[in-house]
Amino acid sequence: SIHDPRRVPIHADHHLPRGRDDDWPHEISANIHRPGLSAWTVHTYHSHLSGFYRWAVAEGAISYDPTAELPIPPTGPSRPKPLEAHEVRYILDHSPEPWLTAAVLAVGAGLRASEIAELDRADVTESYVHVREGKGGKARLIETCATLWAHVRSLPPGPLVRHPHGHGPVSGHYLSCRQQTHWRALGLPH
Questions:
Q1: Helix (H, G, I), strand (E, B) or coil at 73
Q2: Do the Cβ atoms of 102 and 164 come closer than 8 Å?
Q3: Is 120 helix (H, G, I), strand (E, B) or coil?
Q4: How far is the C-alpha of 171 from the C-alpha of 122, rounded, in Å?
Q5: Looking at the whole model, is its pTM more than 0.70?
């Protein structure tokens, strides 16, 4: 969420005919409606570019917001794609660290990558998982399931998910960006 609002305008600057600061609405629309992008991605890209152009106009960097004339793309249907039970078991049986602990936290407490990365051993007790800053900056307590507690209780103090090469804790960005490579390596390409 933090990196995309920066990345999308940079991508647009490289791929629009005259760069992102001097383009027409139809060129921006064609850029964000590229083949292969989901409705959610198109909607998100439009949102990031609109935010960028509103900021640029307010700062006086440009005088015209070309996205103001574009309709907001629909998000399309949202359909969860949960893992099958045998896939979860396979992940838990075959993942090395940090992926094993990340998977236990994701499955056992429903945590997002950023929440997993921020979690400290002191945040997990036999009764609850204390998410200090979840989505929207909100803290919450989640009931600890037996599998999660069995995995976490003997871990050392400090960050629960650490970089595999001893470089300290991982970031949510690391988990989000590297997870697909890990799942593919396990034979779970989808």
A1: coil
A2: no
A3: strand
A4: 18
A5: no
Q: Which residues contact 82 (CB under 8 A, 6 or more apart)?
A: none
Structure tokens at 32: 């964000």
Nearest to 61 by CA among 13, 7, 25, 1: 13
Burial class from Cβ neighbours inside 10 Å (0-12, 13-18, 19+) for residue 168 reads exposed
By residue count, the chain amounts to 190
Cα diameter, the chain: 59
Residue type, 98: P
- Residue with tokens 């647009």, as numbered in its chain: 12
pLDDT tens digits, 162-186: 987 777 888 888 888 888 888 889 9
What gap in Å lies between CA 155 and CA 54, rounded to an integer? 47
Read off the pLDDT band of 136 (50, 70, 90): confident
